[in-house]
Amino acid sequence: MIKFKDPQVEKLVLAAFLKGPEFWKEIPESWFEEELHRRCYKEFKKILRPPYSTFPTPDIIIDKTNDPDVKILVLELKEINITLQELNVRIQDLFDMFCSRKLFDVASKLPEELQSKNPREIVREKISVLSELVNPFGIKESNREFIYDSAVERWEYYKGVESKTIESTAIPFHINDLDYYTNGGLRKTHMMLIVAGTGEFKTLTKLSIAYNYAFIEKKDTMVLTLEVPGSGDQRDYQRMIDARHSLLEFKDIVSGKLNVNRGIYREKLIDIVENKYPLYIVDIPDKATSGDVIKEIELYFAKTGKYPDAVIIDYLNEMEPLGSYSSSSEKFKLLASELRVIARTYGTRLITSMQLNREGKKIKEGEKRDLENISESHYVTNPFHVIVFLHQDPNGIDAATNQLHWTIRKNRYGQKNVTFTTFANPAFCYVGDRKIIYPGYEQ
């Protein structure tokens, strides 16, 4: 039977944190039920949190803390022995106790809520609350500190990035101008929105970015497809990736008419099997919610033991939020906010797209296209760090010359309202630079 609390488990976890930097983990304070243990952990966070030249000893902590009860507790904790393997088990125990308290709290309020709320509304609320209880390190608490508290840490981080001993969290898109204007690519926990009209490369652009992330950067990449072009078969999305990888025409792969190029296709499929490029594709045949995104990320963790570096959703118009809404504007505002929470909780990058709305379609060629015209509500844009608008001329010249124009309308990393042009060839499922990049070499 799961306990609501166990002071001994809490002591073992605190004792482990004192043993060395490999034992230190930052967890929510709410996991500790005992008030003294919570106070002690707060002191630990001030002193044990990196960076440090040498890991602080228990005596240093006793010397630095002003709480007499914590001093006595640390004296007791430093005599307790615990291994790294035991710590992992105790962290899980601590998390399970927190979950049991949270579940009891949710369950105890249900009879009263059933009297005043719609059952569907209750279900949506509880999914949102309980979805946090699947990943011990996915729960985040608000961080409160003075600006000077982490000044040394920020300087150490800067020196690490400058000397390249610490890698930037940006993953490059491998689209030259996009990487230039975003100062290296999309960062961890950040989101990007692609906006375009029908047939203006929303899916192929996301597919090309997914390919570059997984095949070139070797980053764990999850694609959630809610609408596969053409037949709607998930295998067709995989064949589109095959077309990009082999630079053979998608229609020839689907129809079995590769002829002399069949050997190239076979060779590229063998390459995919041997190199195991980390591209994970999930096809959801019906409308998905942000809860489905959480579920798939957790299933990915169950399968691989890690969370994806990037989640690419095709596309936003086919999704529903968990929260209730009364208008399409509220719907997309809520949906974008829920996705932002997911990206921050799981430390992943999130890329999705949206159909240009009717007002955006009415804008004449050459007229300014602003954020208000890119969706059912410009409020959807608030959580996104990068918003790009894809477009071609209405006369068919761009399509005939395989050109796609990008306009960056929002850019937290640098200059916005800039336009550049890339190559776009739907036959080969390719969007990007004219100098095509393959895994491991360039052509």
UniProtKB/TrEMBL annotation:
Signal sequence interval, chain numbering: none
BP GO annotations: DNA replication
Pfam families noted in UniProt: DnaB_C
Protein origin, superkingdom: Bacteria
Residue ranges of every copy of the SF4 helicase domain listed in the record: 172-423
Cellular-component GO terms for this entry: cytosol
SUPFAM superfamilies listed in its UniProt record: P-loop containing nucleoside triphosphate hydrolases
Annotated GO MF terms: ATP binding; DNA helicase activity
Record-linked PANTHER family: REPLICATIVE DNA HELICASE (PTHR30153:SF2), REPLICATIVE DNA HELICASE DNAB (PTHR30153)
Name of protein: SF4 helicase domain-containing protein
Species: Dictyoglomus turgidum
